[in-house]
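for the writeup, i need someone to sanity check this before i put it in the appendix. the sequnce is what the collaborator sent (i think, or maybe the updated version? ugh). structure was predicted straight from it, no edits. if anything looks off just tell me and ill rerun, i have time this weekend
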Amino acid sequence: MKVVAPKSFTYRGGNKAVLLLHGFTGSTIDVRKLGKYLQERGFTCHAPLYKGHGQDPEELIQTGPADWWQDVLEGYHFLRKEGYEDIAVAGVSLGGLFSLKVGIELPVIGVVSMCAPVKAKNVDDLFKRVLHYARGYKKLEGKEGEQITEEMKRLAQTPMQSLTSLQQLILQTSKQINLITSPILVLQGSLDDPLYKESAKVIYENAATKEKQMKWYEQSGHIITLGKEKEKVYEDVHTFLNQLDWQ
């Protein structure tokens, strides 16, 4: 069965623009409901799909952070070309990390970081994430167990060089959080891995802006935009965006 890959999306809702960024091995599905929620409340939302994501895992392992960051930059400049002068950025997991990087390197009116890592994950753990994604994808394709096992063996022996680059990106970004001067909202699931919970505190404490908030979700894990408390997450993001100084 052919799996229909998710796509980048643009939901037009008004003259205030939000760049939405998804997670590693995730897709724009991570932020689609949030995008719809914000669109209905007067925001235009654009979410780029990173290269290699949402499709065959053999494609994913051929890509890396430089490719994904380029997709983020193109998403930002797409909104600029569309005439939006003020842009906020919001992302979950790797998208949260990229949101911080956008806040460090580009003019933004506000930053929303959700479950972002700023403490480097072990390369083996990152590769396990890729393998978990690959197995799920192959099941979606309708492949039989024996075929999946064989393909997974081959995949497990294929090095994904970019994971070291991803580690370096996390560490580099963590050292530059003090360059964030835009208002920032840090959101974190209490049931998430300790590394992400520690990261949330680091982000909040080190962002240079005085306009910063941190919220925790007691019943949520990692991808809080799709978790039990997603509606509360959407509401909190919307409230934060409404507090920004839009022109």
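The radius of gyration is 18 Å. The beta strands are 9-11, 16-21, 43-47, 87-92, 110-114, 184-189, 212-217.
thx in advance!!
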